[in-house]
Write the structure tokens for this entry.
Amino acid sequence: MLLCASFSHAATLSETLAETLAETLAETLAASAPDADPEAIAQAVRASACAVLKLGAKPPKRLAVVDYSRASVDRRLWIFDLHAKRLLFSEYVAHGRGSGDNFARAFSNLEGSLQSSLGLFVTAETYLGAHGRSLRLDGLEPGINDQARARAIVLHGADYVNPRLGKMQGRIGRSHGCPAVRQEVVDQVIDSLKGGQMLYAYYLDRDDPGAKTLPFGGKVGASQSALMRCEIPDSRF
């Protein structure tokens, strides 16, 4: 019943109770993915619960967490089944070429930046495009990732997301800002996430743990994600 309380009925809960339940869920998910940063998972769960509580978003069945603090040659995408409270995928994922080389250092919401965006996204429809079957993402955080659809930031497969290539050149290939995954798993990943699931892109500056890089070059002391802190006005889709 924890998941139901945390997500399905979040709109009827107090923020304090929802936060407590989200913390418990995050601990369970983190235990199923010991290679992931528990803080990244905790932020993802809190942001998702807030989107349900404050925005009236549909409670997700799946939650993806991308940790852009990690090197591109490492697995840094985890997808969780929130009903079973278990890990489904641990995968490689590309960042935008404008964000950095092996490590992503800069993030943006701007068209033409070729940078990845941070924060919480909700997944939408699939389509066939230049990269084959792809999954559209809608950013839920104003000024942080809400231009994702206009920028065509989507989840797709790419040959350059290849760990062997990463070993040869010191990084996997980079996208134009999209979270691209291996071609071998793209269909399974899309099928697990399509149609109203959630994806959270996390980043911690290891050189300055108290700061997060903002799209316009400034810094804040807490986090890129207003939803993670539940600091967003009540709204409804």
In short: The mean pLDDT is 87. The helical segments are 2-8, 15-32, 38-55, 163-169, 186-193.
